[in-house]
Write the C-alpha cells for this entry.
Amino acid sequence: MAETFDYVVIGAGSAGCVLANRLSEDEAARVLLLEAGGEDDADEVHIPAAFSTLFKTRFDWNYETVEQKNLGDRAAYWPRAKMLGGCSSMNAMIYIRGNRADYDAWPDGWKYDDVLPYFTKAEHNTRLTGPYHGTDGPLHVEDRRYTHELSHAWVEAAVTWGMKPTDDFNGETQEGAGLYQVTCRNGRRWSTADAYLRPAMTRTNLTVRTNALVNRIVFEGNRATAVSYSRHGEEFEVGASTEILLCGGAVNSPQLLMLSGVGPASHLNDMGIEVVNHLPGVGDNLHDHPAAPMLWRTKGTTDLVNLTTPGRLLRWQATGRGPLASNVGEAGAFFHTRDGLAGPDMQVHVAPTLFYDNGMREPTVPGFTAGATLVDVASRGRVRLRSSNPRWRPLIDPAYYEDPADLDAMLAAMRTLGEIASVGPLARYLAGPYRPATSEPTEDELREHLREITQTLYHPVGTCAMGSVVDAELKVHGIDGLRVVDASVMPTVPRGNTNAPTIMVAEKAADLVRSTN
C-alpha cells in the first residue's frame, strides 16, 4: 500500500514553501513536500549580485518559448528555478506587491483590502511599518546594503525629468522613482526556503523530498487521491487523504494538470492522454512582463561587474556589505505612458552595468542599463504539452506584443528613458549610447531594438486562472481534493515583480485550506 499523508504539496517554490510551513503548524497534519530540484546549496544562491550566474545551470529548468514572430522569429529564454525556494532562490529579490487596481479587478475575496493583511502577515520590514507594512513576519525585507552612485543618479534624473520621488513603492501610491527594497536579510538573499521552509523542517509532521519529479496526479473518479513521482530512478506513489496542493508555477502547474488528464480535451486526445476533466482554460491566459533594456557606455564612474572582486567577496561574507550585496536592479520607477489607465503601465529597472540577454553577456565596456518593463499587459499566450512524457519541456508561447497596444507602450517608454538619460544628474556619467547605437533613434530603430532585445522579466502568470480553471478558493473546477496555489492562478499579472504576490497567494491559500478541512 502506498504511504499516505494528509497533504501533498507539489513544488517547493515561493508558494510551496509557504504552504509547507503553514499547514504543518497543525501538529496533527502530516505534510509531504515534493521538489523536482535539489537543495539551494550553491554559494551564488545567497550572494545577491550573483543571481544571473545560476541561469542555465542545474538550478534552472532552462525553458525556451516557441519562436516569437514579434521578436524577429526568435525563441526567448525563460529561466525558472529548480531548487528549494524556487524562483525566490534565483530572482533579483525586488519586493513589489503590485497596484491596488490589480487586485480590485480580481474575484471577490481577492480585492486589495482582502489581500493586504496577507502581505503584511508575511513581511518583516526593517524600515517601513503599518498600515501598509508588517514588521514581524518571516519574509525579511530591507533597504539594500549597497547602492551604486549610478542608481542614485538615475533617480535624481527621473525626478528632475518630472517623476515624483518615492521611498516606498508598496505604500499608498505606487508611482514615482526610487530605490527598491529587497528580500534580503543583512545583505544576503532571504528566500522562502529561508523564511518558511527551514524553520518548519524541524517538525516531525513535515517531510521534504528533493529530486522528486511528479509525473501525474492520480484520480479516483473526480477526486485527486494520490501523486505519482520519480526519484533516483525509481517510481513512487503517495496518497493524499485530505488535499493535493499544486505549486508548480505558471509553466509546470498547467503542464502537470494536462499530463494528469485535466485540460482541453482535444489537446489531451492529441497527446494520447485519457481525459479526466475537460477544462479548456488550463494553459491559456499566459502572460508575462516583457522587458527591454536601453544601454549606455559610462565615464567617470565604476561598473558593478568590475567591483565584484575576491576581496569584496570576503567583505560581503564577513559583513553582508559591499558590491556583492547589490541585487543589480537597484532602482527604478512606475509611470504611465498614456492617460486614462487604472494604474501605471510601465516599470523601470536600472543597473550600474550592461545587463541584457538575461545577464548572459559579459560586459565589454563600462556601462549603465535602464530597462523598460510593461506591467499592464494586453497580449495573451498559452502553454501546451509537447509530449505525454513528463520529462519533455512544454510548448510555451507568451505571444509577446501580439496586441499592438503593448508595443506602443514600450515605444513610449523607450522615448521616456532616452529623455531621462539626457538630464544632468545622469547625463554627466554617460559617454554615449551602446544599444540602440544612436542617441536619438528613429521609430523604426526603436522597433528593431525591441525585436532584438526584448526578454522576459521572469513574471509569467495566469495559466490556471481564477475563474476559468480554479474558483476563488483555488479549487480546480470539477475536481475534489485539488487546489492550485502559485502565480498561475492570478487572472491578471500584478503591476510589478511577482514574488511577493505569489507569497501572498500562498498565505491566503493556507487559511482557505485550514478553514475547509
The domain at 145-179+290-376+401-453 is CATH 3.30.410.40 (Cholesterol Oxidase; domain 2). The radius of gyration is 22 Å. The CA atoms of residues 15 and 59 lie 18 Å apart. The chain is about 25% helix and 25% strand.
